[in-house]
Amino acid sequence: MITVALADDHILMRAGVAKLIEEFGSYKITCRAGTGIELIDQVGAMGAPDIAILDYSMPDMDGYETTVWLNKYHPKTAILILTSYDSEVLLVRLIRAGARGFMRKDIHPSDLHTALQEVMTKGYYLGGDSGGQMLDLFRKNLHENDPSKGLLSEKEVEFIRLCCSELTYKAIAETMGVTPRVIDAIRDDVFEKLEIKTRVNLAIFALRNGLIKL
User: Fold this and answer.
1) Spatial distance between the Cα atoms of 148 and 129, rounded to a whole number of angstroms
2) pLDDT per residue over 185-199, tens digit each?
3) Is 117 in the same domain as 135?
4) Sheet holding 51-55, edge to edge
5) Do 65 and 102 fall within a single domain?
6) How many CB atoms lie within 10 A of CB 206?
């Protein structure tokens, strides 16, 4: 059985998600917490889960702080964040903290099941973006072990690394010494090459391919 910890301060939301997960089979909810602090206490008593599903907005200890703690003390736990996708910069920050993917609170049950499966089998949940196509690009590439060669230019790699920070696109342009219009062009080219659509999944790509480290 794959063990799952769930932290959400909304009782009905927590109960509904837990019920869905247990109905999938092969999953066992070992922790049900209302805050990050409660989750830490339960993990101490029950042991680290295979997957932790964390609401970002929780009192006392939010999803970001809980992600940092889990990644530090239980790095093998795959962390999925429940979010409304309000800010790509925020989500990139969570990726850097150790999150493996994101789910909207209005996610369809089948997508929830997919998220659980992919975070266990692939390491990350890329949502609606074509994560499989990204990986295929590098399996076919002669420089598979070094994504900075062949497929991506040095400037594009620099752009990707800067995107994995809290810098805005305007600040990235200033750092690279180019205009915002040039940054827009680089971004569009990178997104097209990697067949992705968001800065968040660009950060996931960078982690998976060793362009940045936690």
Assistant:
1) 21
2) 999 999 998 888 889
3) no
4) 27-33, 2-7, 51-55, 78-83, 99-104
5) yes
6) 21
- 81-113 pLDDT per residue, tens: 988 755 676 777 888 889 998 888 888 999 999
d(CA 14, CA 34): 8
Look up residue 149 and give its DSSP letter.
T
**79 and 56 Cβ atoms separated by less than 8 Å:** no
pTM of the model: 0.70
DSSP 18-58: HHHHHHHSSEEEEEEESSHHHHHHHHHHH---SEEEEESS-
Q: Which stretch of DSSP H or E encloses residue 64?
A: helix 63-73
Quick one: pLDDT band at residue 127, thresholds 50, 70, 90? low
Show which of 60, 92, 121 is a domain's final residue.
Answer: 121
Alpha helices in 164-198 (DSSP H): 169-176, 180-194
- Same-domain status, 88 and 180: no
CA dihedral 45, 7, 108, 200 (to 10 degrees): -110
Domain identity same for 17 and 94: yes
Instruction: For residue 100, give the CATH number of its domain.
Output: 3.40.50.2300
Whether the CB-CB separation of 36 and 30 falls below 8 Å is answered with no
